[in-house]
């Protein structure tokens, strides 16, 4: 049974202030950044239990309401979150081809590398993350993916691969002879698939190897031992091909799998990956494993078959991951009893319900998710997914840091984006900023509807 979106939550932007203060009911004061009036966040109580904080009309959190503890400890979850042109960092569709279209119908190749001083992700008033600083990259060629490393930000377009420094300056650009269809990154190696080849690069964009693929890869993951798994665009008798990124050799081909979904995403810290069926009903998560023989093997799928929301927006609890986080905040245990090839899919132990992250309220949904090694979840939240405003316009989103162990929001800010489709949402471990890469324009854009509406890659200080 799908979760209903019938209830809409109204939001009022906080009045602009720099570090709004608050006073608790017992006279103690705290200082924090502005928050959204009416927003409820969890907070810690002296007894160790969890209470609730409400953002007041003045744009600051009231005292923590603890039912069993009179001497509570307010934990404001503010965060002005001003954007910067520093690098960003992690959620992406695992290298799958963006449905926003293929080649730019505008006719001209985008330079794909120029730093834009325009800044289209504008601040929407108070409490919002200011985005008046230049984007790292913006243009009208299809955005395939974006990654971050100590060396800088990698932007993969339909016609190029570019390395930017954290000021948005081009370090190196590689033009592609054919349309790029998928990309993946393991922190050391970039794998770029186009309509005919799979090519690997090091962090300085020096080519390592290139090979002709048996089928065009529209989704791609890089696993251990420099092995890349390529998934073609068909969901009938789909074969996964394993290639060696160090020399381009084809290592193995899998059995044929049908109706298990196209997008692929690695389970962090493992040689497993997830595919999602979103164009068939019911939708499910499907688990695959790359064996020591280099052959991809299907393990099993989620057992509920339509009992909860399944979308391409999901995250993990860390690395190696043991839980998957859905866009509605549901936690799924990836490897439960019976998560194997021998168990019936209706009683599968893969992706079984394992609680909730507990920080979403009303109709809120996660739009982007990334998790660090300390169990801190970084999230982009759509506070009003049922908004009937023109989806070509800017819309306000929440940026949040969530402590997974305590299920509490520990930091929050707002940001206004013209977000048509999120392509990548990654945390930059080098400076703690967040990389947001997205297609602009309407959320209902289709390639046949006209010219690609453009993209932006931004780094947000958070």
Written description of the protein model:
With 462 residues, this protein is mostly beta strands. It has two domains: 19-75, no CATH class; 83-460, TolB, C-terminal domain (Neuraminidase, 6 Propeller), CATH 2.120.10. Helices cover 0% and strands 39% of the residues. It has no helices and 34 strands. The strands form nine sheets. Strands 5, 7, 32, 33 and 34 form a five-stranded antiparallel beta sheet that branches. Strands 6-31-30-29-28 form a five-stranded mixed beta sheet, with no helix packed on it. A hairpin with a 2-residue loop joins strand 9 (152-157) and strand 10 (160-164). The radius of gyration is 22 Å and the shape is globular. Residues 1-34 and 68-132 have low confidence and may be disordered.
Number of helices: 0
Secondary structural class:
mainly beta
Distance between the amino and carboxyl termini: 36 Å
CATH architecture of the largest domain: 6 Propeller
Number of strands: 34
Classify the fold: give the CATH topology of the largest domain: Neuraminidase
Radius of gyration of CA atoms, rounded to a whole number: 22 Å
Percent in strands? 35-45%
Domains, number: 2
Oligomer: single chain
**pLDDT below 50 for ≥5 consecutive residues: which ranges?**
1-34, 68-132
CATH class of the largest domain: Mainly Beta
């Amino acid at each position: 049974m799908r979760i209903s979106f019938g209830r809409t939550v109204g939001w009022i932007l906080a009045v602009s202030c720099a570090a709004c203060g608050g006073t608790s009911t017992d006279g103690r004061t705290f200082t924090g950044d502005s928050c959204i009036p009416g927003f409820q966040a969890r907070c810690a109580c002296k007894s160790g239990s969890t209470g609730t904080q409400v953002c007041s009309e003045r744009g600051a959190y009231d005292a923590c309401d603890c039912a069993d503890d009179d001497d509570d400890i307010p934990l404001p979850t503010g965060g002005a979150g001003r954007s910067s042109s520093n690098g960003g960092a992690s959620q992406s569709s695992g290298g799958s081809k963006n449905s926003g279209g293929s080649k730019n119908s505008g006719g001209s190749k985008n330079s794909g590398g120029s730093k834009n001083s325009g800044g289209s992700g504008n601040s929407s008033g108070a409490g919002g993350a200011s985005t008046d600083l230049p984007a790292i990259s913006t243009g009208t060629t299809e955005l395939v993916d974006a990654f971050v490393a100590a060396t800088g930000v990698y932007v993969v377009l339909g016609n190029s691969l570019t390395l930017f420094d954290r000021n948005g300056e081009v370090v190196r650009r590689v033009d592609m002879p054919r349309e790029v269809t998928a990309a993946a990154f393991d922190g050391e190696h970039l794998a770029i698939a186009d309509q005919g080849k799979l090519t690997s690069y090091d962090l300085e964009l020096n080519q390592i190897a290139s090979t002709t693929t048996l089928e065009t890869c529209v989704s791609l993951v890089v696993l251990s031992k420099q092995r890349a798994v390529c998934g073609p665009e068909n969901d009938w008798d789909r074969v996964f091909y394993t290639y060696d990124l160090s020399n381009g050799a084809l290592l193995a081909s899998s059995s044929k799998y049908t109706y298990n979904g196209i997008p692929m995403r690695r389970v962090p810290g493992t040689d497993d990956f997830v595919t999602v069926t979103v164009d068939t009903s019911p939708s499910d998560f499907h688990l695959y494993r790359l064996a020591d023989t280099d052959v991809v093997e299907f393990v099993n799928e989620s057992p509920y078959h339509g009992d909860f929301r399944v979308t391409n927006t999901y995250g993990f609890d860390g690395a190696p991951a043991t839980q998957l986080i859905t866009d509605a905040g549901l936690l799924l245990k990836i490897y439960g009893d019976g998560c194997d090839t021998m168990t019936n899919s209706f009683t599968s132990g893969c992706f079984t319900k394992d609680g909730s992250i507990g920080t979403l309220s009303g109709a809120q949904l996660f739009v982007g998710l990334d998790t660090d090694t300390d169990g801190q979840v970084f999230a982009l939240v759509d506070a009003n997914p049922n908004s009937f405003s023109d989806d070509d316009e800017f819309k306000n989103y929440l940026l949040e840091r969530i402590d997974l162990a305590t299920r509490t929001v520990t930091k929050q800010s707002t940001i206004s984006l013209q977000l048509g489709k999120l392509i990548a949402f990654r945390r930059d471990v080098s400076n703690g900023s967040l990389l947001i890469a997205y297609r602009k324009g309407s959320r209902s854009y289709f390639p046949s509807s006209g010219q690609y509406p453009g993209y932006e890659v931004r780094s947000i200080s958070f």
